[in-house]
Design goal:
The chain contains nine helices and eleven strands. It is an alpha/beta fold. The strands form three sheets. A six-stranded mixed sheet has the order 5-6-7-3-8-9, sandwiched between helices. Strands 2-1-4 form a three-stranded antiparallel sheet. Bound molecules: adenosine-5'-triphosphate and magnesium ion.
Amino acid sequence: MSTPIVEVENVNFSYHGLTVLEDVSFSVQEKEFLAFIGPNGGGKTTLIKLLLGLLKPDSGKIRIYGTSPEKAAHRVGYVPQDVAINKAFPISVLDVVLMGRLRFHGKTRLSKFDKKAARNVLAELEMLDYQNRRIDDLSGGQKERVFIARALATDPDILVLDEPTASLDTTGRTELYAILKEINKTKTIIVVTHDMMVLSSYVSSVACVNRSVHYHDDAEITEEMIQEGYHCPVELIAHGIPHRILKTHEDEP
Ligand SMILES: Nc1ncnc2c1ncn2[C@@H]1O[C@H](COP(=O)(O)OP(=O)(O)OP(=O)(O)O)[C@@H](O)[C@H]1O
Ligand SMILES: [Mg+2]
């Protein structure tokens, strides 16, 4: 197997002495489509912030492309949780995407080239027609696409999305995952999701995050997991696929 692009080794993290992630180890390969699943408060967003270098582990090691998350940050695009909801953003769609271009260039002025790049990525997400609209005036699904465009504006190698489908209906979700599948042809994707539907059809691997992390290197779903004790979130079952669940974790009896 080739060298992993993300390596997490024995990572521990706590907020003010309260442990949130304990002895977390896993790695991610190039072009993987990895889903983080797990209950509310399980530590998914925290784990993502550690991968982005926004938080530092108390102990353990994280390498992205063989270097620290801070040094690799320009290779990672990030769509934060809830970014598309309840935010007053009185600026245009194009300006939101251009903000993504400013992020790593240390520039104060944008060139024609920046605008062209921003428009290209909006076109990829089928949002170019909306470039002059106020972001506030778009639907939840349209906003989500714009924030994905912002994350893609610097052409990162890894795209990280924290619950991008939370505000979308079934059609919106399906469309969004189709877009991500297309993006996955050239980029590695890490997505936090509660969408069980998505797991087998789009993703290549799944990690259950609930203080500890159980990594499954395929998205295969079996019946055993519902019958045996497991650490993956119960709501996955409640959401409607009672017979299709992840394999049991290897280190469990
Ligand atoms: N800045 C913070 N300071 C203190 N505690 C925090 C902070 N951020 C998160 N936590 C706590 O850490 C735990 C993990 O939170 P996190 O946001 O990583 O969970 P999550 O898996 O993303 O949950 P959700 O599915 O609700 O988004 C929770 O108990 C949360 O209350
Ligand atoms: Mg979260």
